Amino acid sequence: MKSTSQKECTEAKFNSQFRNLTFLDHFKQKYGAKKTHMFGCANLFSEPFLCCQLKDFIEDQSFICNLQSELNKLELYKKDNDLYKFRQSSDLKNIKSKPHIKALTTMLSTEVRLWLKDVTGIPLYDTIDLTCSKYKYTDVLLCHDDELEGRRIAFIMYLTPDEWSTENGGQLCLFNTDEHGQPKEIMKKLIPQRNSFVFFEVTPTSFHQVEEVLSKNKVRWSVAGWFHGPNIERPHPYIEPVKPLSTATDIQTEEVKKWLNVSYLDIESALKHIQSQFEEESEIQLENFFLDNKFEEISHALQSDSVVWTKRGPPNKRNLYVADEGNLPKVLQDCLHFMKSEFMFYLLEHMTGLNLTEKTQGSKPKKAKSDSQLDGDTKQNIGEPSCRAELRKWCHGSYTLAHDTDTEAHDYALDVSIFTHCNDWKECYGGFISYIANGEDEELLTVNPSDNSLSLVYRDHETLRFTKHINHLITEIDTPEFYEIYVVFYE
What DSSP state is assigned to residue 109? Predict the structure, then answer.
């Protein structure tokens, strides 16, 4: 038989302050009016969306310590994809052998659920999703809205060290939205205070993220999940406008010879070998693509003050810098001209065996043109070869996410990248490009940035790509950024 002290130790007590009728009436009034208000024991924020922070959520501090001790002994699973990197437990509802975990689950699914139902007016079901998460140095959860069928209230209970500060990172960041309902900027940050409980309603605009953890010796522990209720109608996902295509540009043979490593003009040997390898793998990395002097000019120009870099979002899809093409140094203008040239289309056809210069009905790729058509002066009618090109800067916090509303995606496309300033780059920094099958997490291919290496990857509409979040480790090197010349060619 358990003693009284043991029984009390394993009982999760929802702080009585929040059950006080005077407090509850006042809180419900402010919540219903969507008004920001500080209650002392609770903070209610109306912007950018309604969010509440309850302090000293559980009365018994010894319960918190015992709960954390049990969580420390759980097996945690690595979660690592385009959106996040951290470790997470299985569903805590299924863990019956740990008394404090079981007590917390019971309290949340009964007393706290009924309290939230009363406060929000949402008819919550009696089941919840509940897991434990562990964020260490460089771990992160990027911008998302939590929308999934049945999810009505998201919550997080923090078990971080008492001395956690903004310098440690790991804050809960809340985004405002633009006229299309897309996340725009971080408007509110909440420090993960120990034994605090944060909740908000899951809506099409409840965009949030867990900021990257910057502390090397503190761990951000939390228990989090969702309360479920009846489904509500959601708007259709916003589809971004399609960016205009570029058509092939003219270029003279003499100009080509100023840029290209001559080994890639060897039709009988090099190009046939490249095509054979590409047709087998659907990807290839070609080193020393540009002549050394041109590559050095490009590298220097990309770091010059004359390049205007614009941050590109929205953050639920990407966060990177793209160069303003209207005000580029001449060598960068010439580089983009070369990459979009008619010659480049033909060269890539010989390297890949793909049809990039003629529009044909049907989906099977055509073989490349005859060898004579690699001449940079060719004036043949090649239909409407098309591509999109841009100069990108990658630094701490940059990423792109895989998403199925990508208007750039065609039935077939060839991704072409050349990187600069990445000699000191390591895979642990992030910044590598991953290709995955739509609807699956399994990685099909990884492209690591490498100086003056031409990366060619052929993908279809069922293949998604993302650039892994660049974490704080990159700030330890002398040049904590690298650049990419990115062009996508369409069949």
Answer: I
Distances 303 to 131, 193, 451, 482, 484 between C-alpha atoms, Å: 44, 40, 15, 9, 12
Which residue, chain included where needed, has tokens 């270029």? 251
pTM score of the predicted model:
0.91
- In single-letter form, the type of residue at position 334 comes to D
- Per-residue pLDDT 10s for the chain (491 aa) are 444 444 446 889 999 999 999 999 999 999 999 999 999 899 999 999 999 999 999 999 999 999 999 999 999 999 999 999 999 999 999 999 999 999 999 999 999 999 999 999 999 999 899 999 999 999 999 999 988 889 999 999 999 999 999 999 999 999 999 999 999 999 999 999 999 999 999 999 999 999 999 999 999 999 999 999 999 888 888 888 888 899 999 999 999 999 999 999 887 788 989 999 999 999 999 999 999 999 999 999 999 999 999 999 999 999 999 999 998 999 999 999 999 999 999 999 999 999 998 754 333 343 333 344 444 444 333 457 889 999 999 999 999 999 766 666 567 899 999 999 999 999 999 999 999 998 887 889 999 999 999 999 999 888 999 999 999 999 999 999 999 999 999 87
Strands (E), 194-323: 197-201, 208-210, 220-228, 246-247, 283-286, 309-312, 318-323
- Region for 282 from its dihedrals, namely left if φ exceeds 0, alpha if ψ lies in -120 to 50, beta otherwise: left
Please say whether the beta carbons of 420 and 302 come within 8 A: yes
**Burial grade of 52 (CB within 10 A; 0-12, 13-18, 19 or more):** buried
**Tell me, what DSSP letter sits at residue 55?**
S
Helix H or strand E segment including 166:
none
Residues in CB range of 392: below 8 A, 6 or more apart: 320, 321, 322, 323, 483, 484, 485, 486
- Inter-CA distances, 178 with 201, 234, 350, Å: 19, 17, 44
The residues facing 481 across adjacent strands are 395
What is the DSSP secondary-structure string of 22-45? Answer: HHHHHHHHHHHTT--EE-SSEEEE
Residue 205's identity, in one-letter code, is: T
Nearest to 136 by CA among 217, 57, 78: 217
